[in-house]
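Incident log, structure service

09:12 report received: a user says their structure output differs between two submissions of the same chain.
09:20 pulled the input from the user's history:
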Amino acid sequence: MSKTEQPRVRRGQRTDTDLTVSAPAELMAFLVEKLPHKNRSNIKSLLKNKQILVNGKVFTQFNHPLQPGQVVTVAGNRAPETTQYRGLTLLYEDPHLIVINKQSGLLSMASNKERDRTAYSILSDYIKKESPKNRLFIIHRLDRETSGVMMFAKSEKVQRLMQESWNDTIKERTYVAIVEGIPEPPAGTITSYLKESKALIVYSSQNPEHGQLAITNYTVQKTTEDGYALLELELETGRKNQIRVHMQDIEHPIVGDSKYGARSNPINRLGLHAQRLAFEHPITGEQMQFMAPLPKVFQTFFKQPE
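09:34 re-ran on a clean worker, output below:
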């Protein structure tokens, strides 16, 4: 057995194997080379079952970049289920950040109407169980009825680093939305300037003096016979209510969004979900990527009749 392959046995469990990275590579290619007794399907199963760790952290993306000196662990057992709380699922945690999948209906942080049950309060209670001195800082927000990937900082320093370098640090921010009607063309870019009124409604303008620049790219993914479309949306800017306003701009509002022009609510919630977030870790510089699965109600809505 080579020095780069070291088995570790945990009592009562199967063997874990540590593999040291010697040259830059993508995770799948590295595993194919190091695990000749497993085919690609076997390796995909290991990734799906969260049995592949890089420097102790679970990664499920086959194209995750590896650097020399990192240790890839092939766990002999499936990882325990992701920690869940009422309203959110904990996707990732390290000494600096917490990443969650927030459910629709949960506030990001306290408002005048609700102060107790928010994503912030749930996570704040969680980290204070380790130490009462622990504090939580919000990096970005999702609307109450929007679900998906959301990130918090464990220190003011990390919050500041993320917010001040947001456009450089965030590599990808992808949403999916169900909209009324089917956009034409099926892919495009929406650009405008957004400004919020005193009534907390965001307005769109083509005048640069009337707000902040907002850019949204959209692609139609699926459609229904009765005139709804599933869009993938990638943000180049992160303004408040940006996607909701831009969908209203092109006359294809998000279902359930009466505030911005929707006339229907076929899934009984706002049809917006933050699916993917990729960023550079503010402390380690590591490339991070997290995904929140498409909500079941979205999947069911676009399921083809048999």
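09:41 both user submissions now match this output. Likely a transient worker issue. Closing.
09:42 reviewer note: DSSP finds seven helices and 19 strands in the chain. The longest helix spans residues 119-128.
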